[in-house]
Write a structure and sequence with these properties.
The protein is an alpha+beta fold. Helices cover about 25% and strands about 25% of the residues. The protein has one domain (about 5-160): 7,8-Dihydro-6-hydroxymethylpterin-pyrophosphokinase HPPK (Alpha-Beta Plaits). It is globular. Bound molecules: 7,8-dihydro-7,7-dimethyl-6-hydroxypterin (ROI).
Length: about 160
């Protein structure tokens, strides 16, 4: 028997009715093969990090359990992004749906395709606050607590929708 791994996925959208993309993505995550949607965070609105000449983002975090290996899960997430006709005109530019694999159990993964924990999650309020809503006692693979990351990361413009 393969044991399921608990994972956290960051959801983001800032094009073509972003709220609808994020809500739809939660339903699609719930239907992925060999995955179970355990928790969906509240949905937030946030000012863009990176280039400012783009719309605000809608962000959320999902907790799933999966028996998929990390790269197989990444394939599934990228498949969902494609389904949303992901538009990505430029690096750090606007997009219809972004699904970031933030954490895969307690694993640290560094391959050409995948960096887990996600490289910037510790400094992004739009990741840390929704994550804390669904996993307040979370400890990162390097033993840093989520609560200590939150102390160092102001909410900024982040607001619950
Ligand atoms: N900024 C916000 N607020 N939310 C995001 O999801 C997001 N995603 C990105 C960049 C462009 C870095 N900025 C973002 O990929």
């Amino acid at each position: 028997m393969t044991t399921a791994v608990r994972c956290y996925i960051g959801l983001g959208s800032n094009l073509d009715n972003p709220l609808q993309h994020v809500e739809q993505a939660f339903s699609e995550l719930a239907e992925l093969v060999n995955c179970r949607l355990v928790k969906a965070s509240p949905i937030y609105r946030s000012a863009p990090v990176g280039p400012q000449d783009q719309p605000d983002f809608v962000n959320a975090v999902a907790e799933i359990e999966t028996t998929l290996e990390a790269h197989a899960l990444l394939d599934q997430l990228q498949g969902l992004e494609q389904k949303h006709q992901r538009v990505r005109e430029r690096h750090w530019g606007p997009r219809t749906l972004d699904l970031d694999l933030l954490l895969y159990g307690n694993s640290q993964i560094n391959t050409e395709r995948l960096c887990v924990p996600h490289a910037f999650m510790h400094e992004r309020s739009f990741v840390l606050y929704p994550l804390a809503d669904i996993a307040p006692d979370l400890i990162m693979p390097n033993d840093v607590t989520l609560s200590s990351l939150l102390v160092a990361c102001p909410m900024g413009s982040l607001t619950k929708i």
